[in-house]
């Protein structure tokens, strides 16, 4: 009888190899131009193993995008310890987001290819599983009750998230990250003020 732990470890190792190989190819060539035979060759596994772990190329792409989103979430959480005020945490989190999005290929995967391949609803669900609630809770904590009463925090989080994404795209295209950090901090202070 085989050790279930070794089977689980082998499964996780195979999935990780597929995700890593797919990520590299999706970044280099894009989703549409990447074939499953290329992915399995790069991962050093069989095509059968790919379909054992993922329903299809789109499901593998979703796993890649989810890993990227989780990495961004981890960076934001690391930059926002509990000792920060709500306002300082929002600003630190926005800076961490911009830094995390500077990882090579991440902007393409999360902001360009992801919405195109997975669609708005699937990307929204991934966002809600990762960073969206953190931003919404941060906004709820930071909003000045007297000034911002009646503003729905979930809608505000959606709008602010779009601003973060636009800034990440601009920085990825060569924009000055410090200028975007300053603009986002100003926007957050105006909202929470």
Automatic annotation (TrEMBL):
GO terms for molecular function: DNA binding. The keyword Transcription regulation applies. InterPro entries: DNA-bd_HTH_TetR-type_CS, Homeodomain-like_sf, HTH_TetR, Rv0078-like_C. Keywords: DNA-binding, Transcription, Transcription regulation. Residues 35-54 bind DNA. SUPFAM superfamilies: Homeodomain-like (SSF46689). Pfam families: TetR_C_41 (PF21351), TetR_N (PF00440). Residues 12-72 form the HTH tetR-type domain. This is Transcriptional regulator, TetR family.
């Amino acid at each position: 009888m085989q050790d279930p732990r070794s089977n689980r470890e082998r499964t996780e190792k195979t999935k990780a190899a597929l995700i890593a190989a797919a990520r590299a190819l999706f970044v280099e060539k894009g989703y549409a131009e990447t074939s499953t035979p290329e992915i399995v060759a790069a991962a050093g596994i069989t095509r059968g193993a790919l379909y054992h772990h993922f329903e299809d190329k789109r499901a593998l792409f979703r796993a890649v995008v989810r890993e990227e989103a989780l990495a961004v979430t981890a960076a934001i959480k690391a930059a926002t310890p509990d000792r920060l005020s709500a306002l300082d945490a929002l600003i630190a989190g926005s800076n961490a987001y911009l830094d995390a999005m500077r990882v090579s290929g991440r902007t393409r995967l999360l902001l360009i290819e992801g919405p195109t391949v997975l669609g708005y609803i699937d990307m929204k669900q991934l966002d809600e599983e990762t960073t969206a609630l953190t931003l919404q809770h941060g906004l709820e904590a930071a909003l000045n009750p007297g000034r911002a009463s009646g503003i729905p925090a979930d809608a505000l989080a959606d709008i602010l998230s779009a601003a973060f994404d636009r800034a990440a795209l601009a920085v990825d295209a060569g924009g000055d990250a410090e200028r975007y950090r300053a603009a986002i901090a100003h926007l957050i202070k105006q909202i929470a003020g």
